[in-house]
Amino acid sequence: MPVQPVKFYQVGSFAVGNRLLADDDRSVQSEPGRANSLTCGHRACQRCGEALGARYALDAAMRATSRQMVAVNATGCLEVFSTPYPETSWQIPWIHSLFGNAPAVATGVAAALRAKGRSDVRVVGQAGDGGTVDIGMACLSGMFERNDDVLFICYDNEAYMNTGVQRSGATPPAARTATTPAVGPEPGNRFGQGKNVPLIAMAHEIPYVATATVAGLRDLEYKVRRAMEFRGARYLHVLVPCPLGWGSAAGDTIKIARLAEQTGLFPVFEAEAGELVSATKIRKKAPVEDYLRLQTRYAHLFKSPEGAATIARLQRIADRNIARFGLLDTDAAPGPAAEETP
Amino acid sequence: MDKPFAITLDVGSSLANKTGAWRTERPVYVDLMPPCNHACPAGENIQQWLYRAEDGSYEPAWRQIMQDNPLPATMGRVCYRPCETACNRAQLDAAVGINSVERFLGDEAIRHGWTVPVTAAASGKRVLVVGAGPSGLSAAYHLRLLGHEVTLRDSAPVAGGMMRFGIPAYRLPRQTLDAEVDRILAMGVTLDAGRPVTDLLGEMRDGGFDAAFLAVGAQRGKRAYIPAGDSAKILDAVALLHATADAEPPQLGRRVAVYGGGDTAMDAARTARRLGATDAVIVYRRTRERMPAHDVEVEEATEEGVRMMWLSTIARADEGKLTIERMMLDESGFPQPTGEFEELEADSVVLALGQEAELSLLDGVDGITVADGVVQVGPDLMTGHPGIFAGGDMIPADRTVTVAIGHGKKAARGIDAWLRGDRGGGTGRAADGGAASHAPQRLADFDRLNSWYYSDAPATVRPQLDAARRISTFDEITGGLDESTALFEARRCLSCGNCFECDNCYGVCPDNAVIKLGAGQRYEIDLDYCKGCGICASECPCGAIDMVTERI
Ligand SMILES: Cc1ncc(C[n+]2csc(CCOP(=O)(O)OP(=O)(O)O)c2C)c(N)n1
Ligand code: SF4
Ligand SMILES: [Mg+2]
């Protein structure tokens, strides 16, 4: 079990904090003195999931490392909106180099710290999905292979958002992006393409791999803390909805991430040394349609008669995840079709 | 300026960038009316006292109840709990066991001897309260808290009214009632027991009273004409319950028929079972759905072996047997005779056909209007005679103890305002007391909640004396919750529409624009940086944040 359920306190363990909990049981985000690694005044769009996910993850890492930590950032929204020179929103040691080399730079920082004998200072690398799944892939795989002492975090908003919503290897099938328009016989992104980096990371048999979303704060914080208990290469993949790129309404950011989990479209799990050790169970199962409807990148599915078949295909992906990762408490029944890959 | 190599500008913080300027809407914390409070006839702030009880602050929780209702241990037993019917949690799993927590708090208060001090300065005004039932006791309590002198008169030798003489002991143990009544009397209320009031104006003049509150109840059982043989035994439910309370129960025989379908009919049948009747039958002319009795009463009566005969009237009573005529509901739902008869063996018949108010004390009081057997009152419960107020079962309203307690509070406020010279009437005061005591607030309905955040927690069921043992004694049948279960039950509250400091808004803001003010102080929005995205409002579990358009 990744997150120990808190003894029943009105809202159990699902809210950020709780006045009735002992200090030790409270989330990092509920602390009045949390690090606020990414502080106010940043230029992220309203309701940005990435800004939220980065603060969640880095504040947890700051607590886990007793604030002895360096972050290395790839190019992308997170870097651009936080550091329009000479302003910075970072309240942690932070370095940016290029779009594709963040894992390599992080490796270098870790090597430098090792050379200086500073085993107390830990390194976090971070990038968007483009910087991780596509252009950063070679550096990342090398970092994994060498088992460098870095926690690499991918903030997955499922496209190149900073340059105007182009498709990435993490864009889901049927989603409309600037480069996968909703036209032609198979509108939106194609089925059967893309990469699942958490599984690729597991294939490297690195000490720790996990996925999380901004809808499961306590789970996310647990995973950062757990990751920091290992030395060597670790990978955390966080789903962060992008209201602009996904076309979602005001205030829906967390709701959408929650639905990604509750439909099974985004499986939340953790693995150690290549083996799956836990999956976060779905609490309130929802059909994929509930998730798709909230986003204009899928609007075409609800406008044409062919849309229904596509929605059914997406449902099969969700069902396969549910069966594959055991996302339901009663996971005896495997999903109906297993031929579709996300 | 001594800068590192290749650095030409100082590092600035993004705090210089006031992103609040992007905003078109702003989050605003609100306190809405929770459905439980809205439904409470005594106007209790239930959500608030549950909130206090949640961290084990039982005494503050009890004091919060006492602001509205001076009889929590009693109400925690006999209230029909409109709050639980309204509770939003029912739409998740089961309603919060509000009533059982109230009882726990009430019992704690009795156990520890908590009292409410009278701190108001003496007003020098004297109020006569006629009737020491729930309404009169509630009025006396609130009037004392407002600094007035109170004399409570009742024809019975002890205070309590229908709570003592109408509600059987298996629902309300007498020690509990006594403890709560005594606590009110000890606040300096003068009790004149065994002293019926017949000449109201005369007594007010002689006693130097500035105002009066009448709460004489509806004590007289309605009669119905039943052709009866000489030796048929017919008695009245109110009298039966009263005599049983006095420990002088009448002989009913082994087969008892109770005529009527209200709560009093259920109480009478259940009392008959306890007095040794092997067969207690409710005879009612309509159907179960149309029966006025509350569901719990019907269920508990059935569990205790009380039988029900629907669509039946008593056409004739003779010694040892009744002639029952079968009825049929017409299109308008009214029962019509069918001409089919059957016999029912019964040693006695108890009439529970409703009660009416005995209003002879109003003879000679001018300005009073009586319609449908009850006294008409204004919104502040003043009758047509200035300075004379009325409440409880003798005015038009639902006849429950909780409603009566609410009337007592409302009348006390009305009397207080009147005595202090506010004779304009209806300065919104009318909204006090009852359901509307937080009137202008919007209701926190279920749709406002983000129920994702509440973990599953089924209700704690109060222990019940098993049915076989029940019918042989007048012991209380429903047990109380122990502390840990009462605490659990209080924590099931969703805090509808009122912040309970779960830190969600503080956590979910992508712009760190929510300031946490510390325990009990809640939060504040940092408008310098709030972009107005609305995530805090959508993720607030209890719906306590509104998004309001900015005026630009
Ligand atoms: C080598 C290189 N190619 C292209 C770019 C332009 N560029 C900057 S950010 C970005 C997209 C970033 O996408 P992602 O990594 O998914 O991060 P997001 O902005 O979505 O958070 C691109 C293509 C660049 N900076 N460097
Ligand atoms: S959940 Fe709590 S606040 Fe909401 S209606 Fe029920 S008792 Fe009242
Ligand atoms: Mg991206």
What can you see in these coordinates?
The complex is a heterodimer of chains A (342) and B (552). Chain A is an alpha/beta fold and 342 residues long. Chain A has a single domain, classed as Thiamin diphosphate (ThDP)-binding fold, Pyr/PP domains (Rossmann fold, 3-Layer(aba) Sandwich), CATH 3.40.50. Chain A has eleven helices and nine strands. Chain A has an eight-stranded mixed beta sheet with strand order 3-1-4-5-7-6-8-9, sandwiched between helices. Mean pLDDT of chain A is 93; it is low at 331-342. Chain B has 552 residues and is α/β, with parallel strands linked by helices. Chain B contains 18 helices and 22 strands. Chain B has three domains: 20-31 and 498-549, Alpha-Beta Plaits; 43-219 and 357-432 and 454-489, FAD/NAD(P)-binding domain (3-Layer(bba) Sandwich), CATH 3.50.50; 228-353, FAD/NAD(P)-binding domain, CATH 3.50.50.60. In chain B, the strands form seven sheets. A five-stranded parallel beta sheet of chain B has the order 5-4-3-6-19, covered by helices on one side. A five-stranded parallel beta sheet of chain B has the order 8-15-9-10-11. Chain B is globular, with a radius of gyration of 28 Å. Chain B has helices at 35-39, 46-54, 58-66, 72-78, 82-86, 98-112, 134-145, 162-165, 174-185, 200-207, 237-245, 263-274, 295-303, 401-419, 467-470, 483-491, 504-508, 535-539, and strands spanning 12-13, 25-29, 126-130, 149-153, 190-192, 211-214, 220-221, 234-236, 255-259, 279-283, 307-309, 312-318, 321-329, 335-345, 348-351, 355-356, 370-371, 374-375, 388-390, 514-516, 523-525, 545-549. At the A-B interface, helix 1, strand 2 and helix 9 of A face strand 1, helix 17 and helix 18 of B. The site of magnesium ion has 7 residues of chain A, from helix 4. Thiamine diphosphate is lined by residues 50, 75-78, 99-100, 127-131, 157, 160-163, 168 of chain A.
